[in-house]
Predict the structure.
Amino acid sequence: MAEGVTSKGFEFDIAGAITEAWSINFGLANFEAKEANGDKYATHVSRTTANLFTKYKLNSLSFGAGLNYKSKQENKTKYGTITQDAYIIANAMANYKINKNLNLQLNVNNIFDKDYYSGIGENGSDNSMVYGTPRNATLTLQYSF
């Protein structure tokens, strides 16, 4: 952190089971960083992030869905201000336990194929923008012995 910068914030996570078959996780983080003169510091980083995930198990089949939130980011450069508005990404999963050793899982990330920048003005660059990951899916077959 730069000299004279102060940062205050909080972070909490809560996880639990609503029933034996239904679980939920929620996390929230927020911070504020300011330079000694009171100006905001590191505005290229989201000030607030949150995630919510729920999973339901029905015999050998499990389903889950979640949301990830990031607040507005901006970076003032010599070329102008680069802004990424707040956004939410939705994800889902399905899992099937074939037997005690074999498990099949499908994960789908960024279900609605939201266009966003995962980073702006990173790594000391004045004008860089990093595109976020588009919709994607992963199918995993896992064998345990």
The chain has a mean pLDDT of 90.
